[in-house]
Amino acid sequence: MGLDIPKQYVVVNGEPIINYCLRVFFANELTDVVVIGVADEWKGFVDNCLSEIQPKKPVLFSKPGETRQYSIYNALEVVEKDGAGADDIVMIHDAARPLVSPKLINRCYDECNVADGVLPVIAVKDTIYFSQDGKTIESLLDRSKLWAGQAPEAFKFKKYLQAHRCMSREELLKINGSTELAYKVGMNCHLVEGEAMNFKITTPEDLCAFEEIMRK
Questions:
Q1: What CATH number was assigned to the domain covering residues 7-215?
Q2: 212: CB partners within 8 A, 6+ apart
Q3: Measured CA angle at 210 (ends 209, 215), to 5 deg
Q4: pLDDT at 44
């Protein structure tokens, strides 16, 4: 992003980006507790965000890890200490996806009642080419069978925590997506329809797009 602060704390239309998804989760009737992964140097900033939102639900904090998945692992251990039940549902979301909708959150919760894990996806629109060197085409992939994963991802708590504990450190460091881990250990994961507006702010162009949406 080329920013001097983490992207989730950039102020857009008078509010830090993290506030947009926090408000949606705090308003969700199926969400009981929210856990925020935050580095010590940004804890005061997040506390100020929460004072603006004034959530009516408990908020817990977890430490960041050296990778995204280790940050999730830390949060799961906080959930365990808070007394979560084996079949409780944990939902993992990126603060950099500010336009998550209540409908999508509920869709993931509902589907997780009949699955170990749930991943929202959207269809891949472009033709996908496979190339190992990035210079020559080696094969074409059938885009009708390709899906782009989004967040939030939902999981049965105990099974997902155990999935982390049964993996070696080296294996965990290689995990890129929350559902990737669940799939690798054999958890029953379902796909649900995602939303195009639920994009992740990854590049300066994404940030500009979000700013424009907020202006409109």
A1: 3.90.550.10
A2: none
A3: 100
A4: 97
